[in-house]
Amino acid sequence: MSLLSKLRCLWTMGQGMVRGLPDATADRDPLDLFTEWFTAAHRAGLFLPEAMTLATVGEDGAPSARMMLLKGWDECGFTFFTNYDSHKGRGLESNSRVALVLHWGMLERQVRIEGRAERLSEEESRVYFHSRPRGSQIGAWASKQSDFLDDRKTLQKRWRKMEARFKDSDIPLPPFWGGFRVVPSRIEFWQGRANRLHDRLRFNRAGKGWTTERLYP
Predict the structure, then answer these.
(1) What is the CATH number of the domain that holds 68?
(2) Which residues are catalytic?
């Protein structure tokens, strides 16, 4: 982290510690607040501010969590991409209820998102897939994500095989790979404050709008 990034980070953290979260009013849009916070994390120079935890529930009812990268958000929800046949992909197909957490420790900020996951359209997945580096596109074809792998050499062999297969052509979107959108029903913002009297502001979906409430830390 550069000196400028450190100064920005300290300034942002200080503003949060002093001012905290806005009042819990029904006219506040949580997506606007999320954009403000994400932009602040990015400008502060934090490493991978888009890193998030994705929690799912499998067919056996057991929870599972892993780190993912948030690839975008808008008024419709929060998007990420994966192999549909992976452990998380199978879990999402069996139970669409999920939770996301983004934590920016240096800024003492956290956002929790709960909702349901739905597949993106094939065209949306194709557009993002072709924006990835060519090596990553080949990797998506080579990996049987979450399946048993006897040896790393097997994976490398599959990658070389796919590299040769698509050597002289564009790489198509794999039929087993694509995106999900988490449509939020609840979004909670957490801001660290002095004496552990932290701010918690929760937005709950209410029709086309949101209700807002403060929570004890």
Answers:
(1) 2.30.110.10
(2) 196
| CB-facing half-sphere around the CA of 119: CA atoms within 13 A | 16
Closest by CA position to 108, among listed 180, 9, 206: 9
| 16 and 85 housed in the same domain | yes
Tally: H helices and E strands in the chain? 6, 9
| H helix or E strand, kind and range, residue 119 | strand 109-119
- Of 46, 186, 59, 62, residue with least CA distance to 114: 186
Domain boundaries, position 153: 131-172
Are residue 155 and residue 196 in the same domain, yes or no?
Answer: no
Q: Decide: 191 and 21 in contact? Cβ < 8 Å.
A: yes
Start-end of H helices in 53-197:
87-94, 122-129, 134-142, 152-165
What single DSSP character describes residue 71?
-
Q: How far apart are the C-alpha atoms of 63 and 98, rounded to whole Å?
A: 10
How does DSSP classify residue 22? P
Average pLDDT, the chain: 92
pTM (two decimals):
0.89
Sign of the alpha-carbon torsion through 15, 17, 23, 24: positive
Token pair belonging to 52:
């998030």
**Could you read off the pLDDT of 133-159 as tens digits, one per residue?**
999 999 999 999 999 999 999 999 999
